[in-house]
Amino acid sequence: MQNIRVAVDAVVFGYANHKLYVLLIQQKFGGSQLQWALPGGLVQNDETLKAAVERELKEETNVSVKYLEQLYTFGDDVHRDHRNRVISVAYLALVDSSNIEIQANTDALDVAWFPVDELPDLAFDHNTIVHKGLQRLQAKLTYEPIGFDLLPQTFLFSDLEALYTSILKKEIDRRNFRKKMLGFGILEETEFYCQQKAGRPAKLFQFKPAEYQRLQQEGFYFEIKFV
Amino acid sequence: MQNIRVAVDAVVFGYANHKLYVLLIQQKFGGSQLQWALPGGLVQNDETLKAAVERELKEETNVSVKYLEQLYTFGDDVHRDHRNRVISVAYLALVDSSNIEIQANTDALDVAWFPVDELPDLAFDHNTIVHKGLQRLQAKLTYEPIGFDLLPQTFLFSDLEALYTSILKKEIDRRNFRKKMLGFGILEETEFYCQQKAGRPAKLFQFKPAEYQRLQQEGFYFEIKFV
DNA sequence: GCAAAAGTGTTCGTACTACACCCATGG
DNA sequence: CCATGGGTGTAGTACGAACACTTTTGC
What we know:
seven-stranded mixed beta sheet, Arc Repressor Mutant, subunit A, three-stranded antiparallel beta sheet, 2 domains, alpha+beta, Nucleoside Triphosphate Pyrophosphohydrolase, DNA-binding, 227 residues, homodimer
């Protein structure tokens, strides 16, 4: 008789201060040590996997995501939990973290953003899962315009550029980057300018998803490459 | 109480006659209509997901694969089976089908290769799974040298080319293709020639995985693009 | 000698790379 | 007037795209 539990976990990325962050929680019923973990939990009998992720995120962290895709299913750690074997379907989520109030909801003791480069030891195999999520994000950034899901609706070009360079850990020429991005025709200049920090005011841009879809159907491919 | 079963299914691709094939089985205890289905079955409590796939493939079809990767987890059809909900972790497998004797083993009534373009109605959501597998294969062909896992160890350049054009359904210039492929430096000319069918005899080539790995670590990227 | 498939080079255009100076604002 | 970050153009190069004839064999 099969005795395996099915869980979902979410790697939720946010971007701020020129750094990539992961959303972590401390579970109420953690037992032994209070380790940080990815938000997630068991799937209910009558809900889809995706619905389960969304429910857990709401219950535990109060975020709602801008982008969500299935990442990978981790099920090879046969003894991850000593009572029942658990396999975990991991999801990758992106949020505009500037626009979000996280809070520990009913099921979580605490919730916080951690810079992805400075993670503590996480529960179970969650470090592995985050790593896989980061790899996926890095790969997808180069061939799908998903970076915009980490930014506010209108954003500065310099932020977009910093997002790419910091997540991919590669340098890039500012002029070439701008030329290429604008060349796609999927960005729109707004009439607004940034409330300055210093220096010359910068135009705010926004991503045009509809235009991207249209172009895509014509055989257009988004692609940002670095040396 | 959670009541969900965990299964694995494999999309096994083979290549022959300039066509891509999928390996299908008819299950012994299919119940109602005898539909064709992907090889697969329930995961045992103490085996990894990958081991489960390999076991089922052996039990049902007697193939051993050259390439195996996790594809996607299908779990949103809450009523796929009316007694228990089942989620299925699908794997993508590639075999050198010229070198394989398939046979219905203990658990299968019948086993056969079907051209991927002429599939019957499959059990459950298996048509969807095959489709996803095909998409993944098409994508990976262009940025990883996995086409070789569908070919015999030594092969003709014309076969390699036909593999690409038929799976990706795009034309390509023979000279440019050859130039590019050889330019990578991951192929080796053997001293053998093809037993002719007609025309000028053709050299046999082989893939050098070790050389590919070496280059990869130096930052080399395999990439085959089409218009 | 002809049918069938294999093998091979060059030209052209495009797209990426590298690179440095001026601009607009706030303090 | 200076510090800060924003905005812009050009020249060189390398790579992909297009394209057609010769070679070797079997029959």
